[in-house]
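Collaborator request, handled under Task 6.
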Amino acid sequence: MMKKGYTEVIVGLFMIAGFGAFVYLSLQLGEFSVFSLEKNYTVNAQFENVSGLKQGAMVEISGVQVGKVAQVTLDQDGLAMVSMFINKDVAIGEDAIASIRTQGIIGDKYIKIINGSMDAPLQNNDMIMDTESAIDIEELVSKYIFGGV
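Structure tokens returned to the collaborator:
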């Protein structure tokens, strides 16, 4: 009788451990981190046009992913305000340039940062002043067709 109870406890512990492992892997695959605020700092940028840029889009420097878009909102001036989570170990100079690019011809939008001098790196909640908005392909095509180019 004692052996059966011991076996049931061991099986129960394995079930709990398996469920815990499943939850952990699900959160990691979903790129959700409970401690994400400790690994990142926030940088903001204003754009005239962020056509197609979504929350969670990648942020890269020199082709290396260094963060992701945290939030895209409209500010009081009617400009798009983009907040980005940047990895703590990556420094961005205050004269950096942020531009919205497209992966491939019709791919997802992402933010490319061209880093400036490291004399004064940006701190948490600082603003990137130089930005280049997204190129709207439909607008370019319509200008070409209707003679605006």
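The cover message to the collaborator said: "The longest strand covers residues 64-74. The beta strands are 40-47, 58-61, 64-74, 80-87, 97-102, 109-114, 126-128, 130-132. Please let us know whether this matches your experimental observations."
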